[in-house]
Design goal:
Length: about 170
Amino acid sequence: MKVLITGSPGTGKTSVVNELSAKGYAAFGPEDMGINKYFDSAAKKFVSRPAPPIDHARYWSSWDIPKLKDLLASRKLVFIADHNSMQPRYYDLFDKIIVLTADNDTLRYRLLHRDSNPNDYGKHPDELKHVMSYNSGLAKKLLEAPGAVEVDASKLLSEVVDEILSVVKD
């Protein structure tokens, strides 16, 4: 089974991956996979990760699809945790889509205090403002994905992971 875990920055995707990995599951976040890339719409080419704050009107995040397909084919059960601009184009690569959701107060706190995420996205005031402005709309849009299942990520991490595992086992 191929599972995409997605949601706004700060919903806990990296923490979920770390917990699933600790339990012995094949779980990968964007930094683990080496598949993320950014398209610079002004330069009309792919570039390395832009420096913060990221201008999302200019830079679109995407995946290196051949690398993603190889990763998904490498195991029977694979969890991929990420969110990027182009992911709806690739929902058909996944058997389940888990959407982590949380209210803005929870996200704000997590983003400002995060230390487990290597890229620190959301700590810059412009990025934080960006996340706060689109969080609820993004959650609604992600939940429109075929077969998407919402998991309330404001709960304890252990409860979130248990719920994800129960969804996958159903």
